[in-house]
Design a protein that fits this description.
This protein is mainly α and 192 residues long. 69% of the residues lie in helices and 0% in strands. Helix 7 crosses helix 9 (172-183).
């Protein structure tokens, strides 16, 4: 059976304005924040769906082409959004915290073994005037216990977590708790 190409004409004229309008009305119902690039992706998907709907449309089914196309676009867009969310979940599952323990004999974290030339104190010296900086460091250090200050000093000297725990004779939990206090935002924000 030969299909009527005039079904496509209203959707293809005026830079596909009708197809874009129909697509945009579907986007608004999903309540998803979309960027300009997302709109471009979905309009391309709408163009492809238009042709697929045209090829699959049966005029004898008792449904208008516009209604058929609308339902096809809804399904396609919903599938695309579901796919995008699924990809985000997979990426989030692969994310690893820098503080997470590594399964090895040292029981150290990624933060302990990733080399970094970033030094909080050097950064603060560059950002602050010397007199103000000294006062902020004193306030910061006054909020820490002597054990936490020792941990901080050992870390600045390049010791690994295992070595620090051994020297200070503390448990992994105590080390993690002290390190969390040393790094917590409420204490560190004083320096900035």
């Amino acid at each position: 059976m030969e299909k009527d190409l005039t079904l496509l004409q209203p959707y293809c004229e005026n830079d596909m304005r009708k197809l874009k309008k129909m697509s945009k009305s579907i986007f608004m119902r999903f309540n998803e924040p979309l960027t300009g690039a997302d709109y471009d992706d979905f309009y391309s998907l709408a163009n492809l769906t238009l042709w697929q709907a045209y090829n699959a449309y049966n005029p004898d089914a008792g449904v208008s082409f516009e209604g058929f196309l609308y339902s096809c676009l809804q399904k396609k867009f919903k599938s695309e959004l579901t796919n995008r969310h699924r990809q985000k979940r997979v990426l989030n599952q692969l994310a690893v915290s820098l503080d997470a323990a590594i399964e090895d004999e040292d029981k150290c974290s990624l933060m302990d073994i990733i080399p970094s030339d970033f030094d909080t104190f050097e950064e603060m010296i560059e950002r602050q005037e010397r007199d103000r900086f000294k006062g902020k460091i004193q306030i910061y250090l006054s909020k820490l216990s002597s054990q936490q200050i020792s941990i901080l000093n050992f870390l600045m000297d390049g010791f690994k977590a295992v070595e620090i725990r051994e020297i200070l004779n503390i448990s992994e939990k105590q080390y993690a708790d002290d390190l969390q206090i040393v790094r917590c935002y409420e204490n560190v924000k004083i320096l900035f």
